[in-house]
Amino acid sequence: MSIFPAVALAFAIYTLPPPPPPPPPDSGAALFQAWCKSCHGADGRGVPSAAARLEVPPADLKDCKGSTAETEDRWVGIVSRGGAAFGLSLDMPAFGDAVTPAQIRAVVRYARSLCGELGWPPGELNFPRAFLVEKAYPEDEIVVTDQARGQEYIYEHRLGRRFQLEASARTALDGQPRAFDGVTGALKYNVWHSLERRALVSLGLEATPPLGRQDVWELEPFVAFGANPGRALVVQGEVVGTWEEAGGFGGMSYRLGVGHELGRFVPMLEAGWTVPAAGEHTLSFYPQVWVQLSRLGHVAGSLGAELPAVGPEPRRPRLIAFVLWDFGDAPLFRGW
After folding, report:
1. CA 336/CA 333 separation, integer angstroms
2. Residue 303 gets which letter from DSSP?
3. Which one-letter DSSP state was computed for residue 12?
4. CA separation, residue 238 to residues 133, 184, 285 (Å)
5. What is the C-alpha to C-alpha distance for residues 189 and 197, in angstroms, rounded to an integer?
6. How far apart, in whole angstroms, are the C-alpha atoms of residue 73 and residue 123?
7. Distance between CA 316 and CA 309 in Å, rounded?
């Protein structure tokens, strides 16, 4: 054998770059491989439940919709206290007594980074739903609202990173059995969000066809925003324009809500000011309390009142309420 090929091979091996060093033992990547690999897989996509002998298939951590929708603190709580503490799978163990809080936060941040795609609004900006103001965060929710003698059934479906499609139907009581009142469709898009500033802004358009009590087409473009400036303080607002098929521009509505998070309760106060193109202005206040019903937080409700302050008489208080299920988080009967 000629010496030249051997020398060339040795030189090539010598000049190869050294292998990357292993991650530090307390890094999120190393801890993930030690704690989570057996169920969630080395890449986070999940091991088949039969192979891992799991009752519930493990979550796919590379699914960006699932990994970004919840807050980092919620993830830390599940890793620390285990799945059972939140009504989830008993196969998810609790690590809180065996490791440090810093290690748990490191593995959570690594697990959330497996999504690998930019542009998904983080769950820290998914603020509690108000009664009047449209949320700026794109959701997967089913909501049933009640206002005096009328009800609305709302279906919201998230499309990709920033879009949300919404459909709703309304019923009302007029001394008769509950009757169909109308339907509305809407499309919403998150145009900007910032975790650093803890704020987001979305644009949307609602369309109501001439069905039920509605005689003409009505369009309502809107801009919605949310902010969490004081961590416990939540501010949400919306500006809505109205255009009708027969009458053209119908006026503007301005809505603003402020809430304060107190554990599973969020007392809120909203104000709604309507300025029609013709007619009397109206102003109403909406004190309410949002309540987390399930341990996981995917089922919640709210109870309050509408208090008219300016507008035509009679101005009587009316009861308002809603219950919601965030079906993107978990099935209805899990998480309790």
Report:
1. 7
2. E
3. H
4. 6, 18, 15
5. 19
6. 10
7. 9
Query: What φ, ψ does residue 185 adopt, rounded to 5°?
Result: -115, 150
What per-residue confidence (pLDDT) applies to 219? Answer: 98
Amino acid at 82: G
Q: Which residue has the tokens 């809120």?
A: 268
Q: Scanning the structure block, which residue is given the tokens 């830390």?
A: 76
| pTM for the full predicted model | 0.87
CB contact set of 147 (below 8 Å; sequence gap of 6+):
306, 318, 319, 320
Name the token pair of 70.
């919840």
Tokens representing 220 are 């309502």
Q: What are the CA-CA distances from residue 232 to residues 130, 263, 312 (Å)?
A: 15, 10, 36
14 C-beta neighbours (distance < 10 Å), count: 7
Indicate the SS3 state at residue 108: helix
Residue 245 CA, chain-centre distance (Å), reads 33
Q: Mind listing the pLDDT tens digit for each residue in 77-93?
A: 999 999 999 988 888 99
| Annotated domain spans of the chain | 22-113, 123-325
Contacts of 180 (CB under 8 A, 6+ apart): 169, 170, 171, 211, 212
Dist. CA 267–CA 45, nearest whole Å? 39
Query: Alpha-carbon distance 126 to 328, whole Å?
Result: 13
CATH fold for domain 123-325: Porin (2.40.160)
N- to C-terminal Cα distance for the chain?
73
Among 4-8, 140-144, 286-290, where is mean pLDDT lowest?
4-8
Q: Which CATH number fits domain 22-113: 3.40.630.30, 1.10.760.10, 3.40.50.300, 1.20.1250.20?
A: 1.10.760.10
Among residues 128, 172, 129, 180, the alpha carbon closest in space to that of 151 is found at: 172
- Taking the mean position of all CA atoms in its chain, how far away is CA 45? 22
- Region 227-231: mean pLDDT is 87
